[in-house]
Predict the 3D structure of the following.
Amino acid sequence: MAIKQLTVFVENRQGTIATITDLISAHNINIRALSIAETEDFGILRLIVNDENTAEKILAEHGYLIKITDVVGVKISDEPGKLSEALKVLDENKINMEYLYAFMARTEKHAYVVIRVEDNGAAESALLNAGFKIVTEADICKL
Amino acid sequence: MTQNYYQKEIETMSAEDMKKLQSEKLVKQVKHVYENVPYYRNLMDEKGVKPEDIKGIDDLHKLPFITKADLRDAYPYGLLAKPLEDCVRIQSTSGTTGRRVVAFYTQKDIDLWEECCARAIVAAGGTKKDVCQVAYGYGLFTGGPGLNGGSHKVGCLTLPMSSGNTERQIQFMMDLNATILCCTPSYAAYIGETLKEQGYKPEDIPLKAGIFGAEPWTEEMRRGIEEVLGIKAYDIYGLTETTGPGVSFECSEQTGMHINEDHFYAEIIDPDTGEVLPEGSKGELVFTSLDKEAFPLLRYRTRDICVLSRKKCSCGRTLVKMAKPMGRTDDMLIIRGVNVFPSQIETVLLNEGYQPNYQIVVDRVKNTDTFEVNVEMTPEKFTDKVAEIISMEKSLANAMKAMLGINPAVHLVAPKTIARSEGKAVRVIDKRKLI
């Protein structure tokens, strides 16, 4: 059920991110969510797009170091405290989180959270048991 | 393995006969140089040596050294020993250290050089049935012209590719069944990487041997190239100042390079005192051209740190062997008082599973040397977790510290952002202004 995240190695240089987003948009690919983790030396750009295979191909052709990572997407209602509830579920099930980022949908009253854990299956079933909706690749394409 | 030689009589000559041959050539050469090169005559007069003092190779140590600084002073014609009308070619160094050298050749010098390269090709198993792809640069750089000439002398079908345009290199290699590849080791590794990316396995590649030189490389790099291309990789050594590639070459034993000592007499000296050191000692390599006509350097200090050996070689050649140079007296960096050779960094990278694509940046901030090493991230090691990449940088820094004794700051950078392969890679950027 996991969704696919594009992970791109980027150098801390002016204009790098714009170059990447330009390449993707030139091929009519939509970015659903984006997050950057950075250090002094480098950054790691994480993207959720509606067509990760084409995006990967384009970026690889342009010499970018790129990897597709499985992550868990959770749909939560857009109200205070809902994110905490989801995180508590993971905590109670002793599932370690590497990182997370969130995005809003345009039309619905929902937020989406992307979570990177070691064991996607365990995280998904824990969240499902607690009543959360897990986002699929098909959902991402419809957004 | 049966051994073939290009010039068996010379390559397997007894030590006694070789010394006799070298002595005869040296006496003639010193006379030629003294009479025809005022710059050299002055150096010898200053040292109080006359041509008649040199009666054989045992008198060589009486002659003055010649250095890169002399070549710069004498640029362009100051060391020319033949009238220009007798010269047919020049070659030149890349000037990477900021001191361009122009060397002149008569037709006899060209023949001698190409024969040296032919010996190297035959020692790597080459015969007239081979297809020899020369992917060294052609032009002022000696790599392309030298191996091209050697390949002709052996009678190989020669593919004069020059360097670069890797797609075309691969197309010719596969379509024309190239069996021997001649280029820099970093370009060989790059061609190998590209073939692998394109899905070629070593057994799909027609090459059987490679002759690689013109830049330092390690045993680990040799093994990597041999594996990816499915070949045996042979080292070759040379410098524009003496001729070009083919001053020495490796045989099937792969334990050092036989020096073509009938043309180039080698000594190892203490770089500080100039004293000649006995066989087996580590020191600076010095060459004397015994029979080159147009640009004959006597006792040229190469700045390469090296060891010579006369141990019996299983290939049957009696030519003295030199180890792979262990660094250069001039590209050795002194960082925080510690001697650092770029080849040590390369060894660490290969041991840790990285490609040898790196750049050392040294600077001085508040009277302390800064020492940074940029290393290209590899697809195998790349991960989406920042903490893991930071810990890769730390463990590389630790491995370098264990090798060098000082701690660098290691930065992982994006692939193919460090210039490499097709020209000489810039491995060291020293920003310190100490004068």
